[in-house]
């Protein structure tokens, strides 16, 4: 099953995210009425998002609500701090819940089979990529990182089908990374992506996209410095899983 959401499925998912607090109180029939979609659309959407069905989705939402209750020790005047903690907790938990084991295994297979693993990243995502490069090298995997836009453009044209490329991009629309992905596609080079934008251009160009959850809003609204926490979670899970599989060989 394709994980790309149709227009009606994306509409439903947007509705769920806007009303996430009330959703656990709805039956699937009630959600169908409230969101004005069929129950089949609900089930199909949730399966694409990594859940086995509506019951599984509600259960995981309720588990997260229990975690939220742990913040009750904060005084009322600490509401801002509570919001900060909850925002980060939400990014961690929802990113983990969105991970597809099948896609994770496919990413590991591609990395293992590649002669070289090339990382492309820009901006604040470079910090995530830098850590990944070092840890892949510690597993004795040949790994290089490129962050300069001109070098990324040149390198993406010089790779061979024996190589694999891993893009790290929060929004999946960075022009030089999109250009590099197009070059890789033309030369039959396997591509992986860590992102929070499953419907982005980079996601559509990548063979395997691991997608995390990015919360709305930023505590630094005047600067383009959105949290890379979802990318950090995805990178750690990919690295740990790769190291585990390598030991099993």
TrEMBL record:
GO biological process, one term: carbohydrate derivative metabolic process
Keywords: DNA-binding, Transcription, Transcription regulation
Occurrences of domain HTH rpiR-type (ranges): 1-68
Record keyword Transcription present: yes
Family matches, as CDD domains: SIS_RpiR (cd05013)
Keyword check for Transcription: yes
Sequence ranges assigned to domain SIS in this UniProt record: 107-249
Domain of life of the source: Bacteria
GO terms of molecular function: carbohydrate derivative binding; DNA binding; DNA-binding transcription factor activity
Protein name: DNA-binding transcriptional regulator, MurR/RpiR family, contains HTH and SIS domains
Taxonomic source organism: Lactococcus garvieae
């Amino acid at each position: 099953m394709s994980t790309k959401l149709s227009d009606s499925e994306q509409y439903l998912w947007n509705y769920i995210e806007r009303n996430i607090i009330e959703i656990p109180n709805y039956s699937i029939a009630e959600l169908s009425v409230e969101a004005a979609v069929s129950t089949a659309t609900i089930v199909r959407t949730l399966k694409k998002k990594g859940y086995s069905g509506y019951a599984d989705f509600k259960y995981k939402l309720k588990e997260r609500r229990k975690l939220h209750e742990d913040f009750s020790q904060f005084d009322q005047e600490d509401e801002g701090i509570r919001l900060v903690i909850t925002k980060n907790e939400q990014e961690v938990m929802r990113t983990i819940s969105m991970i597809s084991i099948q896609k994770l295994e496919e990413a590991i297979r591609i990395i293992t089979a590649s002669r070289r693993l090339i990382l492309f990243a820009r901006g604040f995502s470079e910090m995530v990529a830098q850590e990944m490069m070092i840890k892949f090298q510690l597993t004795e995997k040949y790994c290089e990182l490129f962050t300069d836009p001109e070098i990324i453009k040149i390198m993406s044209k010089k790779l061979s089908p024996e190589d694999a490329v891993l893009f790290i991009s929060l929004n999946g629309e960075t022009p030089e990374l999109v250009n590099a992905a197009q070059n890789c596609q033309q030369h039959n080079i396997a591509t992986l992506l860590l992102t929070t934008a499953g419907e982005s251009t980079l996601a559509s160009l990548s063979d395997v996209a691991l997608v995390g959850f990015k919360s709305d809003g930023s505590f630094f609204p005047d600067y383009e410095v959105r949290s890379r926490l979802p990318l950090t979670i995805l990178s750690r899970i990919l690295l740990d899983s790769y190291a585990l599989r390598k030991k099993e060989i």
